[in-house]
Amino acid sequence: MVQVQVARFQQGYCYVGVLNRDERWTDVIFLHVDDDQLKFFLKKTHEFSRLLPAIAREIEKNRLSKSLRSAVSGLVSLYDTCSMGVAFVDERGQLLRCNSEAQRILDLRDGFFVNSRGRLQTSKPNENIDFMQRLQRMSGAPNEYPPDNDNKITITRENACRDLLLALFRVPDHFVDSFFLDGNNTFDTCVMLAIIDPAKPRFLSAAGISAIGSLTNAEKEVADLLIAGKKVSEICDDRSVSENTVRCQIRSISDKLNCNSQRDIILLAAATQFPSDF
After folding, report:
1. Which DSSP helix (H) or strand (E) runs through 5?
2. Strand, coil or helix: what is 29?
C-alpha cells in the first residue's frame, strides 16, 4: 500500500504520496487542499491511498515504455550505420516504420516497394505470395513460425546486378505495445524485416563466410573479389596468378561453403550480415 501523509502547507494542507522508489529517483504525488476541504479529504484518505498504486503503476509503465522505445530506436539507428535496412510491418504487410536505409531501398521501387495501400509488396507475383505467406506464419502462434533457416527471402530486381535479401523476425509482444504506443494501434502482431542490398558499394565482405568455411587467407582474398562481382580473368589480373590457380581456389571455396555458383557465394556473404534475432 502506498503511504499517504498530510502536511501543513503555507495556505492549507498538502496530501503527499510516495509512489515509486528507485536508486535514481522517487515519484511523489502532491494534492493541495485548503482549510475548508480538509475535513472532506481526511474522510477520503483511505480511498485516496487505494487509488495511488494504480497511478504508480501507470507512471512506471510509461517510464518503461519510453525506455523501450529509446532502446529500439537506438537499435534501428545502429542498423543504419551498418547499411542494413530495417522495416516494421503488421501481419498484412502494412508498413509501420522503417529506417533511412530501408526507405532508400523502397524508394528505388526495384523489386520491393510500398503499394498504394501502404503495404510492402514485391514486383513478381509469385515472390509476393511467398513473402505474404511467410509474413503471416511469422505473425501466427509460436508453433506456426517458420524455422530459422526458412525466414530468409531473395527478391528479384530488374535494375540492379544483385537481388535483395530479406530476413523476417517476430517482434515480442511487449515491444509492440511500447515501441508503437500511439493510442491508435489496430494491429495485433509486428514483424521486423532486415533488408540487405548487396549491390550497395562496399557493403559486403568475405569476413562472415571466411569464418564459416575456415577459408585460407588466399581463399578469403579471392572470395572478396568474387563478392565484388569480379570475373575469373579480373581476379587473375588483380592477384597476378594463373587462371588455373584461381579456379582451384574458387572450387575449394565452393566446396567449403557448399555453394554452386558465384551468386550463391554472394548470397551467403549477405546472409551472414543478418542479425540472429530481434
Report:
1. strand 4-9
2. strand
pTM of the model: 0.60
What nine digits make up the cell of 85? Answer: 535496412
Q: 142: Cβ–Cβ under 8 A, 6 or more apart, which residues?
A: none
- Say if residue 249 is exposed, middle or buried (CB neighbours under 10 Å; 0-12, 13-18, 19+): buried
Please give the Cα distance from 246 to 262 (Å, whole number). Answer: 13
* pLDDT tens column, 248-261: 999 999 999 888 88
First to last CA, the chain: 37
Q: What are phi and psi for residue 138, nearest 5 degrees?
A: -65, -25
Residue with cell 491511498: 49
**Residue written as cell 596468378?**
241
Q: Which residues contact 187 (CB under 8 A, 6 or more apart)?
A: 90, 91, 92, 94, 96, 176
d(CA 148, CA 116): 31
Q: How is residue 218 written as a grid cell? A: 588466399
Mean pLDDT of the chain: 77
d(CA 110, CA 52): 55
